[in-house]
Amino acid sequence: xGSVSAAFxxxxxxxxxxxxxxxxGSWVRVWRGxxxxxxxxxxxxxxxxxxxxxxxxxxxxxxxxxxxxxxEAVPPGEExxxxxxxxxxxxxxxxxxxxxCSPQDQLLxxxxxxxxxxxxxxxxxxxxxxxxxxxxxxxxxxxxxxxFQQLEELILSANHISRVTSAHLPRTLKVLELCYxxxxxLQDLCARPPPELQHLGLGYNQLCGPSQEKHLTVGxxxxxxxLDLSFNSLTDLLGLVSQLSTLQSLRILVLQGNPLALxxxxxxxxxxxxPKLSILDDIHxxxxxxxxxxxxxxxxxLIRSEARVVVSIGEMKGLPxxxxxxxxxxxxxxxxxxxxxxxTYEF
Length: 347
Description:
This is LRC43 protein. It comes from Edolisoma coerulescens. Keywords: Leucine-rich repeat, Repeat. By secondary structure, the chain is of the alpha/beta class. Helices cover about 20% and strands about 10% of the residues. Helix 6 links the parallel strand 9 and strand 10. The longest helix is centred in the N-terminal third of the chain and has 12 residues, at about 5-15. The two termini are about 35 Å apart.
């Protein structure tokens, strides 16, 4: 699917919300069997049980219709909602969802048992508050998303999205995750962003400054608490900090993997420049660290246009061990074997 809407429809088909034990109507047990040849003298075949939707069964059977062959309803009665829910929740049930399914998957399956009418037609869009579409080849965030009037969390990681139009995002969004995509420009996203957004995930994209940093201010994201910009191509630390400092609610920031993170004073400068920050690059900022870097924000001259890279090699496998070779005696005519190795780092 090329759009989020198309991926959602495919997602609903995958959940099979109209099949047992979900769907409209009440489920009853039905016994099925077929004759095995007339006049053979063989006993009646064994009957195999199955489950049918009672409303569908009644719709197919007219009042005058007589039982055909060996098919007949059996008195055991309808399956209770409790029994149907147990079939969904029991990990040993053939209808159980896989362990890595999202809470939204489980919620929709249970709603399809308890109140299936809520999932008919456009009413399904009123139920969904969290939508996770991962690695489904989505390229477009289309205006069909506006049908999700209660949507609070939208996760579209590992797709092929390069452009996000904010006019297509529900105003109720609080979490927007777009990591592992191809977003290289924030202009369309910031034209009219969701005002209540608390987390914005843009890690592993194609953002490069300084043109993008102007979109990371309180004027666009007044309630932003968490921001992930990791593994992009941001280089202007001073320019980025001047914009991020306007985000008064920002508490969590991830910038690792950008070229600017190689600056020797990178962490200390950020810690002192953003006093309300609690976590930087997944590491908690403790009071003693903040005290250690106190005053660094007033010394921007320490941020030079150079980087420091420390490479540590813990272990190398597949190389001959020099200790395994016996030292040649003086004057020996034995062969001398020399090994040369070249290690290349690409930035």
